[in-house]
Amino acid sequence: MVHQDQGQLVQEVAAGGLPAPPSRYVLREEARPKGDVIAPAPDDDLSFPTVDLQRLSDPDDVEELAKLRSALESWGLFAVTGHGVPESLMDGILDATREFFHLPAEEKLKHANRTEETGEFQPEGYGVDRVDTDEQVLDWCDRLYLTVEPESERQPRFWPPSSVSTLLHAYAPCSARVARLVLRGMARVLGFREEFFLGRVGENGGTYARFTYYPPCPRPDLVYGLKPHTDNSVVTVLLLDRDVAGLQVLLKKEEEEEEGKKRQRWVDVPVLRRGELLVVVGDEMEIMSNAAFRAPTHRVVTSGDRERMSLVMFYQPEPHRELKPAEELVDETRPAMYREIKAKTFGDGFWDAFALGERTLDFLKVKIDKQDDEVARGA
Ligand SMILES: O=C(O)CCC(=O)C(=O)O
Ligand SMILES: [Fe+2]
């Protein structure tokens, strides 16, 4: 059965000019984005990390490698400079994204993420994320989701006949290079040869683009633009809105015990400086690295009067690969923290987990319980 709200575009709800969002989008009191956000000061130890990829490519630049290490250990995400992506291309693609989302709904719906026969959700195409139940609190965003690589798997019917598609085609190799440079750097952080992670991802890994449009919301305090999640990727490369912030990350270091309860502390990711991209560590890397690198939980909050956009590129391993902690990172003192799982099974599980607001790692029970592990090792 297709849920009746699967076809409800948020942009159209927003255009209705209601004084408050409909209840489908309203978070339960305890989940609302409240005053739990801290904006980092420029020189405290929360300062937002930036890595220069050109410097990182120099094997003698230990300083830049140390910056990458520190970014991975603290935020799990960081801005990148020196990546070689032309600023004009970055600007062009964001402008084209805005133009696409401003097209009349019937134009966009020619690329709808619903099957023609039954109207059922499928990941690719334009629309809202998957709606399974009445209980699910929906995110305040619409999106266009496309398979980009392998190129042979692109599905032209989902690619709009607009500059969004032409520019995405031009941007894809630039963004892929960013992902590769970061993966090489991450291998070096652990003292491995550069191709360590790239070899495990494979040459025909999947790349998926997600263009997200967050309309202004009359009550940003009541909704999420995008609910808290970790990414279904090895790494993710993001091109963020030039003017409007909204992305927030949960800093593990900042979690405190308060009156016996874990208090969560969210930190704003600032609007990036011109020409910067953002890189986020994803779940597949957390598994492969045996948690040497952790995927940060992040979310998006909306603005009361401004629309916001992002283009996110997810890099995933070849689907037939077995995802598991690299043997080099497993020993007596640090046993495997995740079970082996096929990359495709993990990727498919993401959609089920995301609709439920759960982490794929938890939903698919990929994390090894300490107790189970001790039993398995005969401890
Ligand atoms: O829009 C953003 O800033 C982030 C989006 C995001 O986290 C995602 O698409 O996975
Ligand atoms: Fe994300």
From TrEMBL:
Location of the Fe2OG dioxygenase domain: 205-317
Single GO MF annotation: oxidoreductase activity
Start and end residues of each stretch annotated as Disordered: 1-22
InterPro entries: DIOX_N (IPR026992), IPNS-like_FE2OG_OXY (IPR044861), IPNS-like_sf (IPR027443), Oxoglu/Fe-dep_dioxygenase_dom (IPR005123), Plant_2OG-oxidoreductases (IPR050295)
Record's keyword terms, sorted: Iron, Metal-binding, Oxidoreductase
Domain of life: Eukaryota
Family from the record: Belongs to the iron/ascorbate-dependent oxidoreductase family.
Protein name: Fe2OG dioxygenase domain-containing protein
Organism placement in taxonomy: Eukaryota, Viridiplantae, Streptophyta, Embryophyta, Tracheophyta
